[in-house]
């Protein structure tokens, strides 16, 4: 072997030994990078200039530039002929005082009492399939529709409408099914996973695996001193309830069929559920999973669109594809509630402190109304369960070919939104029940009531 060949071989051997010695260090660095990646399924971007506005600085939004706006990226305002606009979604804000309409041209925000369009934003690039409000503030969570060329359906944008800018973005590998907000939390729902973030810095706090959840079912408590989340479990008919303040998870086997719809009381203590059969609605204590009451919407299978609980936990409303809003009286209360007062939600000191579950039992209590039942209900336990069912106390009839969601207004009223662009307000007789009386009807996509 020549001298040059020997020298080359020695250099190659030295280089190989050095590579071997560096290899563990490279591996350690790679592991450290992986540990700092929040999730392989998503990425996030936070505006570096000011970040998320703290809740104390959120302002009640009253539009200062009514009409259309071209402040979304490079899009420009366009004419908003209501005949060309398709309604993609409707959703209430947290206290049901407002609602948002996502359209094929942007979105609009409406006040419920009195009914009034507050503001609208119109885009050339497409519309939004999810528009989630944060109470009555200037903060919105937006998810684009499939036809939106600028904001795809796998991206969540946190929009500050007062500053007319995006203050945070999340991108995922799959489409976003729902977004839920409260003043300290932001929740993003995918079909098989739920991400819970701190609203202040958008830091990821929790990841929850779920059964296939194409409806984006998820619900949050709203009281600032309780932190409760309900979502589908990993088994059919199961609801998972996270009491984050108590560091406790409760699995409630609510139905034999798949879960179709559910909602929480504002304090997160009670859960109302319906299955894909759509015949029964059940109310549970979220702390111990006890079933407290069961009411019957009907006998035929139905698709449940929404379940609403009144703020005083005295009434429950259900909408379905059968075209009827059913109203039921509830017989549940929280220990320590003043049953003579129904002005505010029940408040238990133990619940607000979240330091004890023994005093949080929800009890069956006398109700000021009685849901109708079968004349053979006295033979409960002998005849099939159908004959002991509680039926709806009051009803309101709607077109069967439209999807509606319902919520409670003030003074024994129910407010209803339709995917045909309709707004209803009706009143029920809290003593005698029966058919509700329509008080107001508006076609809100075609109304001439504009922001002023």
From TrEMBL:
It is found in: Preautophagosomal structure membrane. The keyword Signal applies. Keywords: Repeat, Signal, WD repeat. The keyword Ribonucleoprotein does not apply. Gene3D superfamilies: YVTN repeat-like/Quinoprotein amine dehydrogenase. Residues 1-21 form the signal peptide. GO terms for cellular component: phagophore assembly site membrane. It is a peripheral membrane protein. Belongs to the WD repeat PROPPIN family. This is WD40 domain-containing protein. It comes from Cephalotus follicularis (Albany pitcher plant). The lineage of its organism: Eukaryota, Viridiplantae, Streptophyta, Embryophyta, Tracheophyta.
């Amino acid at each position: 072997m020549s001298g040059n060949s020997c020298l080359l071989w020695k250099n190659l051997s030295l280089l190989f030994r050095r590579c071997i010695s560096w290899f563990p260090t490279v591996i350690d660095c790679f592991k450290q990078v992986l540990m700092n990646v929040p999730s392989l399924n998503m990425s996030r971007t936070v505006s570096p200039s000011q970040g998320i506005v703290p809740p104390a600085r959120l302002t009640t939004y009253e539009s200062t530039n009514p009409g259309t706006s071209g402040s979304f990226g490079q899009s420009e305002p366009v004419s908003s002929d209501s005949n060309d606009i398709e309604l993609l979604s409707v959703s209430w804000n947290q206290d049901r005082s407002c609602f948002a309409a996502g359209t094929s041209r942007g979105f609009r925000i409406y006040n419920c009492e009195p009914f009034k369009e507050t503001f609208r934003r119109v885009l050339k690039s497409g519309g939004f399939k999810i528009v989630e409000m944060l109470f009555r503030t200037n903060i919105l969570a937006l998810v684009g529709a499939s036809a939106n060329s600028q904001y795809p359906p796998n991206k969540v944008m946190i929009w500050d409408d007062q500053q007319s800018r995006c203050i945070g973005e999340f991108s995922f590998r799959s489409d976003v099914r729902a977004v839920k907000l409260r003043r300290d939390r932001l929740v993003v729902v995918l079909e098989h996973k739920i991400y819970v973030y701190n609203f202040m810095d958008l830091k990821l706090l929790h990841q929850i695996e779920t059964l296939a959840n194409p409806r984006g079912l998820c619900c949050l408590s709203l009281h600032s001193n309780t932190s409760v989340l309900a979502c589908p479990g990993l088994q059919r008919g199961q609801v998972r309830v996270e009491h984050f303040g108590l560091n406790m998870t409760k699995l409630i086997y609510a139905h034999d069929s798949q879960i179709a719809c559910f909602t929480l009381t504002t304090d997160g203590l009670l859960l109302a559920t319906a299955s894909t059969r759509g015949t029964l609605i059940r109310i549970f204590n979220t702390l111990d999973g006890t079933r407290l009451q069961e009411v019957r919407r009907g006998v035929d299978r139905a698709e449940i669109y929404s379940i609403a609980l009144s703020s005083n936990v005295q009434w429950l409303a259900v909408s379905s594809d059968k075209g009827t809003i059913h109203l039921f009286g509830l017989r549940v209360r929280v220990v320590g509630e003043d049953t003579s007062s129904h002005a505010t939600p029940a408040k238990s000191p133990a619940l607000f402190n979240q330091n004890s579950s023994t005093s949080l039992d929800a009890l069956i209590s006398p109700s000021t109304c009685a849901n109708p039942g079968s004349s053979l209900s006295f033979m409960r336990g002998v005849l099939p369960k159908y004959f002991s069912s509680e039926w709806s106390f009051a009803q309101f009839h709607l077109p069967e070919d439209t999807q509606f969601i319902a919520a409670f207004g003030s003074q024994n009223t129910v407010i209803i939104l339709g995917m045909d662009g309709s707004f209803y307000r009706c009143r029920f007789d809290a003593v005698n029940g029966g058919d509700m009386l329509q008080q107001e009807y508006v076609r809100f996509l075609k109304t001439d009531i504009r922001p002023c």
